[in-house]
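Late entry, written up from scratch paper. The run itself happened at the end of the previous shift, but nothing got recorded in the book at the time, so transcribing now.
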Amino acid sequence: MNAHKEKPLSYEPERMLHNTDIAKNTLVLILAGGRGSRLYEMTDRRSKPAVYFGGNWRIIDFTLSNCLNSNLLKIGVITQYEAHSLLRHLQHAWSFMPRERGQFVDMLPARQQIDESMWYRGTADAVWQNVPIMKEHYKPKYVLILAGDHIYKMDYMQMLRDHIYSGAKCTVGCIEVKRSEAKEFGIMAVNENLKVQEFVEKPADPPAMREKPDHSLASMGIYVFDADYLYQALEEEVVSENTHHDFGKDVIPRALEDGVLYAHPFERSCMGRNAEGSIYWRDVGTLDSYWRAHMDLVTEHPQLNLFDRNWPVIGLPTQPMPAKFFYKDRNCRTLDNSLVSGGCLITDAQISSSVLFDRVTVNEDSVIDSAVILPGVYIGRNCHLKNCIIERNCVIPDGMKIGINPEEDAKRFRTSSSGEVVLVTPAMLERLALEEKTKAAVQEQVEKGDYLI
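Output as recorded:
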């Protein structure tokens, strides 16, 4: 193990670091090529970072907004799976930064650079295949590597300052999680100076925190590297016989072995807290977690403040016209604890604890409760939608009930692993309509005596 002199845990000298110089020498790489298979049909034609979130954004907008608010404006987005929706969003929403000032959001799709059959083989390989571009065009001193599929607010500049002062070659962002849930993360143990002493990827028996035995310290998939160290580590990793081409399984353990790995507690740089002051970070990689994260937004005191002008979330606001509400009975309480985007038309409908994206139409006597309704959805009369996610451009026919009868929902649509949430897509509705049409046609023939049973 290489000797590495630790600095005492004190952050006073960070005031001497100039943010402008750090930003000028930092390249941000956002890993946005993942499919997100546990979101099922929601990611059939878009990658997970391109999935809609919060009534007005895509998931990747939270990571990009963190970069913008942290004054880190040299950004590359690495894409692979079903990238068209994401690339289109980046072009339309994030092309405003002036390149003549050294600010950009560059798109780095998989380009089969090794051979014609080789795409990105893992997170580390995705960065490795872009090293020639990094050296030739960007020339960074520090590289900040982020995931593009989490919901949180974070000051990355603070993490960079801590990285530089500690003398680390690699710093990993970390968050406290319950030990019972730690099996899904890379887990680390640190000393009093936050130097990492142990790192285990998705362990069956997660190491506990010394001061909190029922909690573990989990990797957030956020890394800061000295560029030269990153190049060297990737060069050695790519020729290793037993590599997984992955940061958590290969590169981070190597930094631990070299004695240059430090942790950065999210608590130090979190810019999004709830009313009680607790930090907020969510992986919305399942139907249940995606739906629950939206429910976090519509409580009396939201877990994440989307209206914070001090740390705004930037995206591509779509508001072709104002939202319109028309009620004949003005004494009826019909809208409660919900987010409703522009262009929505609500007529004599009850809406509670729901998130409606733009251009949603809800007709008379329909009830929407604890639902996430994506753009362009049309909901007919006398419908009842509860605990569901309705994909964009769905047409819900009059009288349809979703989230009311679990057995019926399981036959017609996609239900989450917990059985609590129902996903509805246009293809599911088309299949259901075809089945009902066929059934009606058979019934008509039976009644006419033209069909032999």
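The chain has two domains: 19-298, 324-438.
(Scratch paper discarded after transcription.)
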